[in-house]
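Standup notes
- DV: blocked on the single-chain target, sequence here:
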Amino acid sequence: MRKSVGYVAFVAAALAMSVGTPARAEKVSPAIAKTLQAAQNASKARKWGECLSNLRTADAAGGKTAYDSFIINELTAFCALSSNDIATATRAYETNLNSPFAADKIAQRTRDLTKIYFNARNYAKTVELGKSAIKSGYADADTYLVVSQSYYQQNDFKNARDFVGSWIRDQEKRGQRPKENAIQIYVTSCMRLKDEACTAAGFEKLVTYYPNPAGWANLMQSLFEARSEAAAFNAYRLATDVGAMRRADDYTEMAQRAIEKGLPGEAQKTLEAAFAAKVFTEKRDIDRNQRLLNSAKERAAADRASLAKQDRDAAANKSADADIRVGQAYMSYGQYPQAVAALQRGIGKGTATDPAEAQLVLGIAHLRGGNKAEAGKAFRAVKGDQDMQRIAKLWSLRAQ
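- DV (later): unblocked, structure below
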């Protein structure tokens, strides 16, 4: 927090000449002018104790005007803050908040005082003054932030979540990008409350506004446990795309699921990425996954060799599921135009067992093929299963 808001310059001007106000011209009383000048000189020399001593002498003088008290408190706040005498600084600050000579400074002084209380770890007072500033229209982003942090520091996670959540929504309504540290306070408050839905929503906001592999990884862990197997598998696909695969077991799990879905090419690609990243460190894990990779390679070779025939057979079949499986196989081998064609054909038949997944995979194929516009359309068309819709929303973010 800035300790100086022009106090020394302001006091120097007050000592040298009349200071105009909307109602009248004011100047310090001659009886304390010399003492105030000594305090100012001490502050310039960074002799904070001497500054405060002179100010106490001035304050004890009889016959002071309201303006004298105002100037004394201005310089007292500056010298006290500079010497880390928070109690003295806050008393002077608060006194001057009620001074008619501070009318044009109330907003800034209120914000500064809120930050002083926060830096002094007086969290209850921070909340009190910060909310007053908000109500009066004085608050800036820092005011909202220190109030949020003060709730959190007091272990009042419910109020921290509710307060910062309201602030985030307000920023979004205004078309503003929510502050990253605000979203982080929201997420950690939700986690402390063991509110899983709230935590996931917070992580979604983080990857929406501040995407990075760490944020995606935190979000993905909850999605890997989705009730829908298809949603979980497509969460793994998303994690690989955004660099959010963190655990060795995640690669193994995805590869096994791919084989179960009849997609050995995807299993092979997943395990090859894992070995390239050296995620398997224990010998037994290396050996187990190497065997799984060898099996995936063997199956993928046979699958790829027969893929053209599978495509023709699927096209001749009334069922859509074969088309969708073929489309996913093409996608796993990087043949995106063929993948899109097979998936669109299957969706068009209207008989897919899981139309939401079919639509989602179509979006992934478009995206990986470089067509973001069509990918977005496909993701928005995912309906029905809530888990799948949530995954589609995250894939839409990826497409942006």
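- Follow-up: Residues 1-104 form one domain.
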